[in-house]
Write a structure and sequence with these properties.
Number of helices: 6
CATH superfamily of the largest domain: Metalloproteases ("zincins"), catalytic domain
Oligomer: single chain
Number of strands: 13
Helix content: 25-40%
Strand order of the largest sheet: 1-11-13-12
CATH architecture of the largest domain: 2-Layer Sandwich
CATH class of the largest domain: Alpha Beta
Shape: globular
Distance between the termini: 30 Å
Order of helices and strands: EEEEEHHEEEEEHEEEHHH
Strand content: 25-35%
Structural class: alpha/beta
CATH topology of the largest domain: Zincin-like
Number of domains: 3
Largest sheet: 4 strands, mixed
Length: 244
């Protein structure tokens, strides 16, 4: 059994370009996803576009797909621009999610400058006045790398499934993935979710070892092991803006 604490995002970008929408240049990244059944298009939180190329698809067809959906994309960009901007920096006083609860980042100890605390955690930072997000995310990632692999192995044993490798990654748009060889990758941000949401994602990926698809049979397996999975899905959608 191998555990990985991987610092590289995935999947790889196969093509990058710009698309002009409403007179604005929009960065577009094309990514291959062998599990995808169709071409997909998504406007990301930073205003860039991600297009998915399914297995057997081509860059040329993906570009034609983007062109055909420019009107839809323009509407999404307009909605994105109208949303209130959420600061991406984490500073003293900022509230973040930790194990599903909002917790405030605070100076931890007046007698020891440079330490901050949140949700029972206490870490050293270089500069209290700077953006604390990089240091906090590294700490959260380490916690996830310590806690998530044993938990998914516990579930795997309970359901008589074999997991050969567990990776904890910085996935930007997926909570996890599972390969036919029994390799499971998990998003470190699961440490920010409540236990029932974390467990749903772990079970979601494990059930792909029985059904490598999202067919009705697959969802029947998910419902069998996690009857309230729809509640977890709703929580993720509701808190999506706080988990970026």
């Amino acid at each position: 059994m191998l555990f990985d604490f991987i610092l590289k995002p995935s999947p790889p970008v196969v093509n990058e370009s710009f698309l002009t929408v409403g007179g604005r240049p929009i960065p577009v990244a094309l990514l291959r996803n062998p599990r995808a059944r169709r071409y997909g298009l998504r406007l990301r939180a930073d205003g860039s576009v991600r297009a998915t190329i399914p297995r057997g698809g081509s860059v040329a067809e993906a570009q034609r797909f983007i062109e055909r959906n420019q009107a839809w994309l323009a509407r999404q960009i307009q909605r994105h621009a109208a949303r209130p901007k959420i600061s991406t920096e984490w500073r003293l006083g900022t509230e973040i999610l930790f194990r599903g609860e909002p917790v405030k980042i605070e100076a931890a100890d007046a007698d020891e400058p440079g330490r901050i605390g949140f949700g029972g955690e206490n870490i050293k930072v270089a500069n209290l006045a700077a953006d604390l997000r990089p240091a906090l995310e590294r700490h959260l990632w380490r916690l996830a790398a310590k806690e998530l692999p044993p938990k998914i192995l516990e579930f795997a044993a309970r359901h008589q499934l074999t997991v050969r490798r567990v990776s904890v990654r910085n996935q930007k748009s997926r909570w996890g993935s599972c390969s036919r060889r029994g390799t499971i990758s998990l998003n470190w941000r699961l440490i920010q979710t409540p236990a029932f949401v974390r467990d749903y994602i772990l079970l979601h990926e494990l059930m792909h070892l029985r059904q490598m698809n999202h067919s009705p049979r697959y969802w029947a397996e998910v419902e069998r092991v996690c009857p309230d999975y729809a509640v977890a899905e709703r929580w993720l959608k509701l808190h999506a803006a706080l988990l970026r």
